[in-house]
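Hi everyone,

Forwarding the result from last night's run.
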Amino acid sequence: MKKAILVVSFGTSFKCQLESCIEATENKIRNEFKDFEVRRAFTSNMIIKKLKNRDNLSIDTVKEALDKLKDEGFKEVYVQPLHIIYGEEYDKIRDGVKVYKEDFEKLELGTPLLYDNEDYFKAVEALKSQLPNNESVLLMSHGTAHRANSAYFQFEYIAHKMGLEKLFFASVEGYPLIEDVLEDLKEKEVKELTLMPLMLVAGDHAKNDMASDEEDSWKSILEKEGFKVNTYLKGLGENENFQNIYVDKIKSMINK
């Protein structure tokens, strides 16, 4: 029986990060599940279009990937998102997969990084390996108006419970914003901190909104407030501990 794993991410137009974060995670999955065909899909139509126009690189949507697997006679398919939270992008994947339930003998959808309660403890443990010793860290999350934005607060709470009291987070498009966190940093008498993306890929948001010298970047805003700022420009996809979490999620799906 032909079996496949469809690895789905938001995507990135940065070639280096595509290789170091997304492709690296896909290859980890490919090496762990040698009896499966491993395919790729993105959820960002904008990125898919950009890669096609700029690099002549064709990336499937979830629908296109599932159509191909169906047409090629695959019977057992596992869809694993590399997304961080169960927000709008995950909803899109879930709704898209539902349509194909009758087209495969087995079609399962995995969960994003932060979903069940135990996921948060695993993710915090995985993050520890890339944190600077005894230094305050401000994580950049993407943020969302979706109710799943609360996942970041649970992550921060559990991080503090696990001994990472110097870990803070703010978001680009949700709550809290960088301006909301400034007062907390001052109250904690933070003098120096490292900015770090809580994202699969250290792409546009990390490079420009977080770490650039632009006037409205997080780095510039914090430096104007008197903080000494360091930056960490690697996505979670480069961390083998996070890659292993996604592998374990796939194993759980297969062993249901």
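The longest strand covers residues 3-9.

Cheers,
N.
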